[in-house]
Each structure stands twice: as C-alpha cells, then as structure tokens.
Design brief:
single chain, alpha/beta, globular
C-alpha cells in the first residue's frame, strides 16, 4: 500500500522499541496516528516527538491491556469514536517468555497466547470492515523468527507466533479481492526491552537483558524494513542478523536444525 497524508495509522505496543520507532517513522507520512500501549507517560512523550516531526499530524493516545479482552473491545470502540477509519494497522504489541515447559504455569501460557495472538486478531477484526468497504488498507503483524520454528524457553511464545501465521495467511487469501495487504513481519534479535519484560514460568518478569538482544539490530532499522514491506505489499519478511538463516536451515535441513536447537544452552528460570 502506498501510504499518503490522508491515511490513519494505528500502532500498538508503541511506548518503546519497534512500536515507538514505527510511530515516529509514520509521523510525517500519515494524517492521523493512533498510538497504543499500557504506559501513558511513554505515549505522551512519543506524541510530542511525532508532533515535533510533523506539527500538522493528529495524534491520538489510547492505553489498554492486550491481555484483557474487554479492554481491547472498549479500546476499539473508543478509537473509532475519534477516527472514522483505520487504513494501516501495525499489530506490534506482545510479550516474550523465558521458561521451560515443565516449569511454566498454564496461566502464563494462556496469558502469552491472549496478548500475542488473540489481541492481534481482535484488533484486526475491528479495522477490517472499514478496509473492506473502501477496498483499501494494510495490516502488518509483528511475528518473530520463532514464528517459523520453536526453541527452548520459548514454547508459548513460539506457539503464539505460529498461530499468527495460520490466521493471517487465511485472512490474506480472503481479503485479496478487496485490495487489502496482509504482512507478517518476522524479526530476529532487535535491541529492545523484550527480554526484560519476558515472563518466567511463574508469571514474573525475566528482568534481564539478553546478550543477543543487546547486540541486535536497532528498532529504527526494523521500522524502516517494516515500512518497505508495507509499501511493497510483502506477504512475509524475515529481518535480523545471522539468526535469519535458522528459517532456511529448518526448511531444507530439518534434522541438522533439530540437532542445533538441542545443543542450545538452557538456564533454569525458576
């Protein structure tokens, strides 16, 4: 989709990292920008940054919790009270995991799935009728390279990302005739706080910066790649460093890939 100044974009998980970088990048490309996350203070700071870049931009802030279905539903109603349509949805909100299957409470599995999968599904359903009516729009959902394969300590996280691929692949086929683009963007290691906020088996935060995250690609470079994917109507994009090779090793040499994964160092998280 070619983005223009009449468009309205909605970015979730916008308080930091990839979401904040994407919102900033879109600031001088769209006419209205909705930014969502749980931390209102961070969103206020982001709003000022976006307005400094484009004083004519309309910026709307809405805070809600993706793990709460009622909160998501109410947020969607509130957003459409403010804007008549959403032309571009960036499903970026999510949470990661650092725990072994045998040591993870089922409630944690459910919470990760609720945030990463059902949250994105619910928001996409709210913007879809308007996109279908105008025969135009784009939904980009941030998956992960782990959406293509599973690794230790990421069971529920990998499951939630795998689920996104099934759902959005189906959606893409259904709305192709309506000229609606659907992109699954799969980043590897990006320099964000995702590992700090990742859940341990008991639901507490991991609260540690992983070395791979610390040395990963910048959120700004990731946002640039996401924008390119939207404008070129890419269906699926892998982004990162050498970890991207894991997708191809898994596809063409599954036995070798399994051996590599089994040898990964696993630290007890509880």
């Amino acid at each position: 989709m070619k983005i223009n100044s009449n468009d309205t974009a909605w970015v979730t998980g916008a308080s930091s990292g990839i979401g904040a970088a994407m919102a900033t990048l879109l600031a001088d490309k769209v006419g209205r920008l909705v930014i969502s996350a749980r931390r209102v203070g961070k969103l206020q700071t982001l709003k000022q940054k976006c307005l400094a870049k484009n004083p004519n931009l309309e910026v709307f802030i809405h805070s809600f919790d993706l793990s709460d279905a009622q909160s998501v539903e109410q947020a969607s109603k509130d957003i459409f009270d403010l804007v008549s349509k959403v032309d571009l949805l960036i499903n970026n909100g999510g949470i990661s995991q650092r725990s072994l299957v045998a040591e993870t409470d089922l409630a944690v599995d459910r919470r990760i799935m609720e945030i990463n999968f059902f949250g994105a599904v619910a928001l996409s359903k709210t913007v879809l009728p308007g996109m279908i009516e105008q025969n135009r729009g784009h939904i980009l959902t941030v998956s992960s390279l782990v959406g293509k394969f599973g690794t230790p300590l990421r069971s529920a996280y990998a499951a939630s990302k795998h689920a996104l691929h099934g759902w959005f692949d189906s959606l893409r086929a259904e709305v192709y005739k309506n000229q609606i683009g659907v992109t699954l963007f799969c980043p590897g290691y990006i320099r964000t706080n995702i590992s700090l906020n990742a859940l341990k088996g008991d639901g507490e935060k991991h609260a540690q910066m992983d070395d791979n995250q610390q040395n990963g690609k910048s959120p700004e470079s990731c946002a640039e790649a996401m924008l390119s994917a939207i404008e070129n109507n890419k269906e699926e994009v892998y982004f990162g460093g050498k970890e991207v090779m894991g997708v191809y090793v898994k596809r063409f040499f599954p036995g070798i890939f399994s051996g590599i994964i089994r040898k990964m160092k696993v630290k007890r998280q509880r």
